[in-house]
Amino acid sequence: MERYQEIEKSIIKKYRKEIWKRFIDGVNTYQMIQEGDKIAVCISGGKDSMLLAKCMQELQKHGKIKFDLVFLCMDPGYNPVNRAKIEENAKILNIPLHIFSTTIFSSVENIEDSPCYLCARMRRGYLYKEAQKLGCNKIALGHHFDDVIETIVMGMFYGAQIQTMMPKLHSTNHKGMQLIRPLYMVKEKDIIRWAKGNELSFIACACRFTEKSAEKEDLSKRREVKKLIASLCEKNEYVDMNIFRSVQNVNLSTIISYKDKEGVHHFLDTYDKEEYHDR
């Protein structure tokens, strides 16, 4: 058996409960894939996107729904070592990469105000555009469960709002395109276990911004939130799942205000009509 086949087998067998079942649950629960889809699986070179590629391959081979895949890797200006590592891992994992190059890293390298946000926006735009050229109607990103709950907490702590990372979205600027996150229910610790268990090593963040200053990465808001959630989970193992469930169990009658497409709604607008009572 080839090494990539052993790795594929581990997803279905050894890590079935932690990875495969959660992957399938996320795809099915949020109806991410439909018959006839052509999906561009976006490969950044990290552990998450590489696992996503393998899960999507397995689902294509063994699932009931027929769909096509393209494995799309954008080189935004990786150094030669990181690019070589991505290509090496793709060969090990039997992932046929479609690589295209941009100059995004150079474009944002000297921007002081939110370079990571701008970089992410630019990367997303290029991925949508290239995917459309290849006839795809969806792009799949490797965000996992931890990314979701960290986004919820960061929105509260630093954005003064309750929001979440959605499992799928329609593209605003690329008509007919959608974004899906098939690893939505898979926890990062299990992705790390899968990588270590198969003796795989991947690039971390290959951005020049963080390459030049590891300190900035250590002090990042997301890193702080990640550590906070981990410390809380040590005392109560259900904290992360409770954070996730909280945005699915919103009681609007206990919310001071909320907004939707029609505007902002305040509880005082209907206070007398609704007759709020102390219970």
Question: What can you tell me about this protein's structure?
Answer:
The model has no long low-confidence stretch (mean pLDDT 91). The protein is 50% helix and 13% strand. By secondary structure, the protein is α/β, with parallel strands linked by helices. It has a six-stranded mixed sheet with strand order 3-2-1-4-6-5, with helices on both faces. Strands 7-8 form a two-stranded antiparallel sheet. It has helices at 3-12, 16-29, 47-62, 80-92, 104-108, 115-133, 145-159, 188-197, 208-212, 214-218, 221-235, 239-246, 271-274, and strands spanning 38-42, 68-75, 97-101, 138-140, 168-170, 178-180, 257-260, 263-266. The longest helix is centred in the middle third of the chain and has 19 residues, at 115-133. A hairpin with a 7-residue loop joins strand 5 and strand 6 (178-180). It is built from 13 helices and eight strands. The N and C termini lie far apart (64 Å). Helix 7 packs across helix 11. The protein has one domain (3-256): HUPs (Rossmann fold), CATH 3.40.50.
Q: Helical percent range?
A: 40-55%
CATH homologous group name: HUPs
Number of strands: 8
User: What fold name goes in the CATH topology slot?
Assistant: Rossmann fold
Distance between the termini: 64 Å
Number of domains: 1
Spatial ordering of strands, largest sheet? 3-2-1-4-6-5
| Secondary-structure element pattern, one letter each | HHEHEHEHHEHEEHHHHHEEH
Rounded mean pLDDT score: 91
The amount of beta strand, in percent, is 5-15%
Taking the sheet with the most strands, its summary is:
6 strands, mixed
CATH secondary-structure class: Alpha Beta
> How many DSSP H or I helices?
13
